[in-house]
Amino acid sequence: MYDIATTEKTVEQQVTKISARDVQVYYGESHAIKDVNVDIEDKTVTAFIGPSGCGKSTFLRCLNRMNDTIDICKVKGEILLDGENIYDPKVDPVQLRAKVGMVFQKPNPFPKSIYDNIAYGPRIHGLARNKAELDEIVEKSLRRGAIWNEVKDRLDAPGTGLSGGQQQRLCIARAIATEPEVLLMDEPCSALDPIATAQVEELIDELRQNYSVVIVTHSMQQAARVSQKTAFFHLGNLVEFGETGQIFTNPEDPRTESYITGRIG
Amino acid sequence: MPTFWLVVFVFALAALGFLAGRARALHSAGGNARDLHSLPNYYGANVLLTTLVPALLVLGLWLMIQPSVVQYRVSGMIPEQAIPENSTLGLVMMDVHQVAAGLDLAVDEGALTEQEAGTIRTEFTDLRARLGELGVALGSDVRPEVLQAAQRYRAIDASGHRNMVIVVTLLALAGLGFSWQHTNKDFRARNVVEQGIYALLVLAALLAILTTIGIVLSMFFESISFFKLHSWTDFFFGGTWAPNFRGDSELSILPLLWGTLYISFIALLVAVPVGLFAAVYLSEYANGHVRAFAKPLLEILAGIPTIVYGLFALLTVGPALVSVFGNGPEGLLGVDWMSGATSVLTAGLVMGIMLIPFVSSLSDDIINAVPQTMRDGSLGLGATKSETVRQVVLPAALPGIVGAILLAASRAIGETMIVVMGAGAIAKFSLNPLESMTTITTRIVSQLTGDTDFASAETLVAFALGITLFVLTLGLNVLALYIVRKYREQYE
Amino acid sequence: MTDISQNGSTPRKHGETLMKLTARTKRRNAAERRFQAYGIAAIAAGLLMLAILVVNIVGNGYGAFTQTFVTLDVTLDAAKLDKKGQRNLDDIKKVSTFGYAPLIQKAIEAKVAALGVKTDLKPKDMAALLSKGAPAQLRDYVLEHPDAIGKTLSFRFLANSRVDGYLKGRVTRHSIENDKNISVPQLDLTDQLVKAGVIEKTFNSEFILGSDASDQRPEAAGIGTSMLGSLFMMLVVLALSLPIGVAASIFLEEFAPKAWWTDVIEVNISNLAAVPSIVFGILGLAVFINYMNQPMSAPLVGGLVLTLMTLPTIIISTRAALKAVPPSIRDAALGVGASKMQAVFHHVLPLAAPGILTGTIIGLAQALGETAPLLLIGMVGFIASNPPDSLAAGLMEPNSAMPAQIYEWAKRADPAFYERAWGGIIILLVFLVTMNTLAVILRRRFERRW
């Protein structure tokens, strides 16, 4: 195990970006998320951990309303982004998702060129006035995605031709390209090898400078390595939320302790 | 004995053999089935199979081979000089067939006795007139050597049939006797029967190959005869289709191909947008209820026989189009652009309707094969559903959709009834969709169902058209299946 | 793809409110709604076509199931029908149908007179309201019942197709201006006779059970005999394609070694499924008729051709059904000492049977509606006037088939046959719907989730 204590030094107080109030999620009959209250801070990496099926991914998908695409999924309660309820009927999920980007478990580059993958978001949201601006956005995003040097000579090559780790960084760069304020990551490293994982983790740490990052992860080490705040979910409940160092060294709830020490999960 | 009863007889014998074999096996084990190597039914099945299979195989082979043997022996009788100019031995032999069939009919109808049919001479009887009375139309007067050959043909054919009955019966009996003789309690009946069944399974699977070979050969040989009568350059590169039953026809496939492709194009113009949009809506937007309701209803369109579409084209769509684009001042548009109900547009529209479910269900499968993560990726970036569909899902599904469209095109090119009833009969190069045009399949039907002499180029051209059609549709299909397979592999 | 130059909107700033839709979002949502509308329109168009087709078929075809009849009391005049008076069948046979026509003319003249209907028509023109087959109907009756000669009996004759069309609204006083077969006074007479109950329109079972009739008598044409032709063809298809198809599928799915020749067979089958049906017709013509000298128009030959055409369909669905049986079943059977052959025939095949049956029914339905190959082997253009009397005759005697009969009617000049064609389609579709429903029920009922 890596040294857990290393993350403690970087913790500092930030403004609240997202706050969830009494969030309930139902999948048809089953009650998937129960009474979740959480405040996610800006310019911070927040990790959601917990055993499989605990609802952490479901909750993450609530934060940019990706659950809307599933017919039987119902969300109750309030989720405020900068004080505005994103489930308000006046909010268009399309506009919301431009602010709250998402990176998925499996790298999912579109069957287009690397350039077009990155340019996709800016194009649909109209972020560039001309080709030069678009080029600039693409380059900036690829640089921030820490993949520019690897792909700058083959921007016209298909994105699907990259390696797994490169694909995932491409997807992160793609998400960044729409200039979101929050970046949601659903187990972004689960399909990657250790080297690619290390690269992505490094990237996440850099992204913290500009974004509020929420990451769902199976790996406690990863949570410990990259996050400043950690939320532990169990059976649809948010059991414990706090400083990452605190959670890993001195959990308050016995369930958190059991999970961290490997007795459940 | 007619072949039908021969088959019944062999089956009856085999059934008898089953019972006898089973009984003998049980008897050899003293009535105790546990002493047998295999279950009693296997002994019965062994006898049944040895009776049935060799006899039926020989019967089948005999039926397939006898005509060529007879042909070969009879054609030896036709002297070189009896073959007229610009004709071939094969064509003379077709005359022989026709005369022989006429004689058969005459005997059946009682117009001639068997004796007369065998000895009749052209010198004394006007055979053409007599057969004509019976409804057998002969293209020309019967020449003596043709008649003689026809009589010889009938004689050999009859004796061949007699021999076949004898051989098959003997073979069935021999099989029965042999296997019955070998039935005893130590005989490994199950293993033998299973090997036999395995062989039958292989045979059944090979039938598919045989069918293809049959298709190719049947058209190939007749096409060769056609190209002996007619220049292949005119067929492939000429510009006119003008069959003339007195000979000297211009038979070029190009105008027919043009009609075929034009009608198929219009059909795809209708079917592809409607089918594709329907598939997109059903797979991306519709909820379960709409899907469960609309999808089977649309697929009904695919289950309707083509004759129904043909009638729809001929009697409903055609006249409706005429009332819009034709009829002069009385028409809806007051124009007179369309004179008859049959036209490229009539056939194309109706064929398009037929192809809608074909395109939609194929595209539906293909769109569903695009991984959900791809859609999530796009939606997660804030794209709307339609942007996701247009810019991510459809481009990803493009190869598969192209494959589906090629399959639909192959269907359209090979479709017969709709064009026979809705397209018309005029072969020409024209861009006007309101005009009648004709297609390859239409011409195949009309050249092969007319009353013309089978040995003429005008009839044989149908086989050359057929083989072209076959190659064309097969090529499209192979290409389409290849593309679709490659596409599926990409997401597996 | 969104054009960069056209979107004039300025880049979105951080912290912008979510509660207000930007102009761009509104535009994109409108595009979204348009796109959805296209989808709905496409489905609606497809369903509309289906509705038009169905309404069209039913609207045009239901008339074929009713027919107009004329009931007349005909005196079977002995002086005309049996001059010698000995009731000798051979003598009676000498009177041709022409000899019976005057009796009918007399009968209708008497009827008209009795009803007090005024008309200038000659008896011959009055009798023209009846089918041209009426004298033959009378003659057939007399030959069957020679004793009836001399009596006056009530007969129900088919009305002429024009009269029938008039009652069904197809023929009007306006439409017959150039029609030599019927005149306005005849229609006036028809109106009177309808009022008197002499002419009436009733259900016509002959359309379903009867045989085709010549060009001159559309009113007498029925689809029954060609239905038998179709039935015999389907028997051949079923008897051949089911065992061969199942055997081929078992081989390919259960036994086939991985070798180049099994690959060839597989590719071959998937390509055969897409060969145009007309090509199978050419094959049938060249091989069965020209080469093997089988008779033209025989349901046996039609059945053979349709078998070759249906086999790929049946093989593909049978293989799917076999594939759906989980390997554990095979392992279980092999585990208790069954041979591979026994495992397949005793365990896998019965479990796959519903799927195989469903596929077979769908294949048969497809074969039942197929027309193009039948054109080439002569099952069109043949007037099947008598139903076959035995199995062998059913297979070997020339006959037609339902779709071929429909095509034949559609080709004829008299529009009265069109109604027959649509009616035939209703019957054909009833068969197809029944078969497909059966297949769906079978599938639902026996569908297994492993």
From TrEMBL, chain A:
Secretion signal, residue range per the UniProt entry: none
An example Gene Ontology CC term for this record: plasma membrane
Molecular functions per Gene Ontology: ATP binding; ATP hydrolysis activity; phosphate transmembrane transporter activity
Membrane topology, from the record: Peripheral membrane protein
Matches recorded under NCBIfam families: 3a0107s01c2
Matching PROSITE patterns: ABC_TRANSPORTER_1, ABC_TRANSPORTER_2
Keywords: ATP-binding, Cell membrane, Membrane, Nucleotide-binding, Phosphate transport, Translocase, Transport
Protein name: Phosphate import ATP-binding protein PstB
Function recorded in the entry: Part of the ABC transporter complex PstSACB involved in phosphate import. Responsible for energy coupling to the transport system.
Cited Pfam families: ABC_tran
Recorded superkingdom: Bacteria
Location of the ABC transporter domain: 18-260
UniProt record, GO biological process: phosphate ion transmembrane transport
Cellular compartments annotated: Cell inner membrane
Record lineage: Bacteria, Pseudomonadati, Pseudomonadota, Alphaproteobacteria, Rhodobacterales
TrEMBL record, chain B:
CDD domains: TM_PBP2
Every ABC transmembrane type-1 domain range: 257-480
Keyword Cell inner membrane (UniProt): yes
Location, primary (coarse class): membrane
Annotated SUPFAM superfamilies: MetI-like (SSF161098)
Entry-linked PROSITE patterns: ABC_TM1
UniProt keyword Oxidoreductase, yes or no: no
A GO BP annotation: phosphate ion transport
One Pfam family it belongs to: BPD_transp_1
Assigned keywords, A-Z: Cell inner membrane, Cell membrane, Membrane, Phosphate transport, Transmembrane, Transmembrane helix, Transport
InterPro entries attached to this UniProt entry: MetI-like (IPR000515), MetI-like_sf (IPR035906), Phosphate_PstC (IPR011864), PstC_N (IPR022182)
GO cellular component labels: plasma membrane
Family: Belongs to the binding-protein-dependent transport system permease family. CysTW subfamily.
NCBIfam families: phosphate_pstC
Function: Part of the binding-protein-dependent transport system for phosphate; probably responsible for the translocation of the substrate across the membrane.
Designated name of the protein: Phosphate transport system permease protein
Organism: Pseudodonghicola xiamenensis
UniProt gene name: pstC
UniProtKB/TrEMBL annotation, chain C:
CDD domains referenced in this protein's UniProt entry, alphabetically: TM_PBP2
Residues that span the membrane, as ranges: 35-58, 231-252, 272-292, 298-322, 343-365, 421-442
InterPro entries: DUF3333, MetI-like, MetI-like_sf, Phosphate_PstA
Biological processes, Gene Ontology terms: phosphate ion transmembrane transport
GO cellular component: plasma membrane
Molecular function in Gene Ontology: phosphate transmembrane transporter activity
Domain of life from the UniProt record: Bacteria
Membrane topology (UniProt): Multi-pass membrane protein
Keywords assigned by UniProt, alphabetized: Cell membrane, Membrane, Transmembrane, Transmembrane helix, Transport
Xref: Pfam families: BPD_transp_1 (PF00528), DUF3333 (PF11812)
Annotated localization: Cell inner membrane; Cell membrane
UniProt KW Transmembrane keyword: yes
Domain ABC transmembrane type-1: residue ranges: 227-439
Record keyword Transcription regulation present: no
Family: Belongs to the binding-protein-dependent transport system permease family. CysTW subfamily.
Cited NCBIfam families: 3a0107s02c
Protein name, UniProt field: Phosphate transport system permease protein PstA
